[in-house]
Amino acid sequence: PNDEMIDGYVLKTDFNWGDDHPYYSDAAPDHVAFKNTVETDQESSLIHIVGKYIRKTGDSSILNETVAGRTVYQRMVGMIDYLMRERYNEQYGLLYGAMTADWGDVQPNDDFGCDMNELSDPAIDVYDNAMFIIALNYMDEMTTNEADKIRWKELRQHIAGNVRKHLWDTERQKFIPHIYIENSPVPEGFNELDVHYHGGTAIAIEAGLLSPEEIATVNAQMVENVRLSGMPSIGLTLYPTYPDNFFRGGMAKPYIYQNGGDWTWFGGRMIQQLIAHGMTKEAYEEVRPMIDRVIKNKGFYEWYGMGGVPSGSGHFKGSAGVLAKAIEMFNEWAEENK
């Protein structure tokens, strides 16, 4: 009812895990929906999906399909209204969520880690805002209403300007991990400003936030981070990792899951951006370990640990999708540069 976008839904009989805030709807009375509310990317992600579908098929009729009394386009407008109402920080002019590791969905302060609660530390990062900028680009593409087009363009410029103003570290030539709205959970003696967020940086490039020179610089930083860490590829979530026991459970150790695990799901997006920005040689060299491990392990694993150990799901569609898209882009480049 408040225009949030959920993460997913299951039959009520299959809902068997601890979640402080399940969602119910009269439109699907047999189901229960769930959402990792520490994140602020679900609304943007849904808009990306619809935008990609229309780009691929040319079928914009989906925007006018009515579900439970409102069109798809109206629901997406509602999602943006929700973000601006519930997840917008006036002081910095940017979206916020809870502190997590880069694009991740686990906060450090409680065992479940996925629900925004009294233990959360509200924080602004580049990933959420870059995803939002890309969503606004799609909204601009998807409407012919002139007032809406002006709104999406102005909002996009506003968010992009504030990302550059508040999150880009000119001295270090990288994005700062977080702006903390209230308190920082980072322990004394650990300088979070040193941490590179690879995934959020890749999405920032897709959002048009970096110049060609800056793209080359952050890519070189990623390659150096891989060398220093000993991890397999630029899918490395972040470097340096957060200290032991900063996160709970499996992420308490470095190079596990989102605390420095290696995710093709985001590394592959960086490869796409390198190709898109004319850095095809670098893209080819940096994609090799990602492709080699798919062949070696006979599967698209969710993430990789130290020593290239495959972890999580072995049928992770996100990994397969970004690699397939990168290969398509390589093939297109090869056709154009015969």
Please indicate the count of domains.
Answer: 2
Low-pLDDT residue spans: none
Give, in spatial order, the strands making up the sheet with the most strands. Answer: 7-8-11
Task: Give the biggest beta sheet.
Answer: 3 strands, antiparallel
Instruction: Count the beta strands.
Output: 15
Q: What value does the Rg take, in angstroms?
A: 20 Å
Shape: globular
Could you tell me the mean pLDDT? 96
Measured distance between first and last alpha carbons: 53 Å
**Assembly classification:** single chain
The topology string of helices and strands comes to EEHEEHEEEEHHEEEEHHEHHEEH
In the CATH scheme, the class of the largest domain would be Mainly Alpha
Q: Helix- and strand-based class?
A: mainly alpha
Proportion of β residues? 5-15%
Helix content: 40-55%
Question: Can you give a write-up of this model?
Answer:
Helix content is 43%, strand content 10%. It is mainly alpha-helical and 338 residues long. It folds into two domains: 37-209, Glycosyltransferase (Alpha/alpha barrel), CATH 1.50.10; 211-338, no CATH class. The strands form seven sheets. Strands 7-8-11 form a three-stranded antiparallel sheet. A two-stranded antiparallel sheet has the order 1-2. Helix 1 runs antiparallel to helix 2 and helix 7 (264-276) runs antiparallel to helix 8 (280-297). The N and C termini lie far apart (53 Å).
